[in-house]
């Protein structure tokens, strides 16, 4: 793991956007793994600006998102497909065919999960996987006790995650879908490079366990210690527990 500790969250997001832009310029047909969550919003804003102002070209890029809520169609304003359209895809030159988000409305979610992994493999594999960190240590929706070798599958969300994401559902945790489709920890580890972005003091303790603790299924993010090319971008608040 390599750590880049930035003075504040704004700087951390700028560094993350620069790493992604560099990847696209270096390899225009990059396969990018993308994430959702509040941390990513400003990063996508910066990438959209880089496209508009400096011609960052997404025309040959393929994307695969980490996860999606089971039961939410892509038109639902809390689905991760909707998030991706509004925060990034609608602002850059990608077609829907180039972008992949697990289909939360699939009639057979298990088959959808299997097909998703097949589709990642058929694309040649993910070059750069962007990741956020849940306050319980999850990456994607791989909750504590997810097998380190897990593949894309249907999971039941932790109570802590329902609470953490309740803000997006009018503050009501009972409105958050209880199941999700997520790339597995093993799927994530297959990416050629991983980029974990963590900001804010609320994640300082869990970040310290991810980076310095034992590799354990209790803290799914700690699996990134096993990855050959993992860059962790932090602000000073998130790094304060190291
Ligand atoms: C959701 C996503 C995760 C993301 C997490 C962190 O749970 N499934 O992939 O890492 O949110 O979100 P935030 O950046 O809002 O703290």
From TrEMBL:
Residues 10-227 form the Glucosamine/galactosamine-6-phosphate isomerase domain. CDD domains: GlcN6P_deaminase. It catalyses: alpha-D-glucosamine 6-phosphate + H2O = beta-D-fructose 6-phosphate + NH4(+). Pathway: Amino-sugar metabolism; N-acetylneuraminate degradation; D-fructose 6-phosphate from N-acetylneuraminate: step 5/5. One of its GO terms (molecular function) is glucosamine-6-phosphate deaminase activity. Its EC number is 3.5.99.6. This is Glucosamine-6-phosphate deaminase. It comes from Acetobacter fallax. The lineage of its organism: Bacteria, Pseudomonadati, Pseudomonadota, Alphaproteobacteria, Acetobacterales.
């Amino acid at each position: 793991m390599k750590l880049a500790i930035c003075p504040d969250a704004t700087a951390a997001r700028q560094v993350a956007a620069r790493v992604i832009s560099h990847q696209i310029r270096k390899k225009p047909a990059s396969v990018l793994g993308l994430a959702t969550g509040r941390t990513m919003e400003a990063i996508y804003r910066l990438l959209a600006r880089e496209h508009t102002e400096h011609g960052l070209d997404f025309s040959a890029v393929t994307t695969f998102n980490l996860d999606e809520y089971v039961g939410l169609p892509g038109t639902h304003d809390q689905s991760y497909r909707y998030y991706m359209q509004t925060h990034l895809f609608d602002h850059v030159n990608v077609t829907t065919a180039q972008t992949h988000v697990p289909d939360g409305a699939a009639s057979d979610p298990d088959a959808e999960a299997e097909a998703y992994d097949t589709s990642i493999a058929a694309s040649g594999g993910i070059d750069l996987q962007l990741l956020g960190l849940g306050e319980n240590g999850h990456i994607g929706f791989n909750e504590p006790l997810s097998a380190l070798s897990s593949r894309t599958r249907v999971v039941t969300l932790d109570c802590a995650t329902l609470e953490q994401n309740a803000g997006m559902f009018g503050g009501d945790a009972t409105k958050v879908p209880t199941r999700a489709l997520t790339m597995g920890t093993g799927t994530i580890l297959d990416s050629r490079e991983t980029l974990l972005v963590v900001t804010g003091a609320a994640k300082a303790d869990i970040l310290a366990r991810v980076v310095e603790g034992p590799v354990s299924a209790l803290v799914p993010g700690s699996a990134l210690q096993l990855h050959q090319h993992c860059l962790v971008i932090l602000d000073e608040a998130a790094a304060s527990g190291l």
